[in-house]
Automatic annotation (TrEMBL):
InterPro entries: CutC-like, CutC-like_dom_sf. This is PF03932 family protein CutC. SUPFAM superfamilies: CutC-like. Belongs to the CutC family. Its main location: cytoplasm. The keyword Cytoplasm applies. The gene is cutC. Keywords: Cytoplasm. Signal peptide: none annotated.
Amino acid sequence: MKDFNLEICIDSAESALIAEKNGATRIELCGHLMIGGVTPCTGLIGMVKSLVSIPAYAIIRPRFGDFVYSDLEFEQMKRDIVTCKEHLVDGVVLGMLTPEGDLDVPRLKELIDLAGDMHLTLHRAFDVCRNPFNALEDAINLGFHTILTSGQKATAYEGRTLLKELIQKADGRIDIMPGAGVSSKNLELILQETGAKSIHLSAKTLRPSESLYKNPEVYMGLPSIDESIIYQTNGEEVKAAHNILLSF
């Protein structure tokens, strides 16, 4: 494939370097991928922008959970976008829904106006919209450049039928980027069955903590999350995905 986007979502400076070295064309910059990614801290944003040369898009997501936000959370998102502009972030990844399950068009427009000429990705809030085709048209009218979606299924592989329909319906007006559960093992089939030209994956591996001691009586977050492992981008997986896209 001559023109493709290989986007790797990362939540550390180390992962950003690994992604760039092994063929990523851009990164989605997140905090805490273990909970699906939230807005990254300014320290991480600044470090990544100073270390990599490929475009970096920051997710604007104030918390874990749904995408129906309070007025205070909305204000926080606006401030985060301004901060990203100040740090010369290349794009923002955002989404907001109404309680009824539609895109929150008026408030998204406010965020998009603040973003100015940054690249705009509608994130997987799209996947919990009640009508994906209405949301597609709303996203195009709002000025989004990309929709990150699993085709409203748990994984992009499972959602490949809807992904194909969305790509056909979009007809080049917006880039439909499959994401969620994408790996080098299913990437070729997803490309074949959807016609996608952009792909999003974490390509993560689990590395053990370097801590030599752990108190078994204490945990810092959810007890279901093993705090003795660290998420990190797997360079070989990024390289494998890159090579598949090159040869497709």
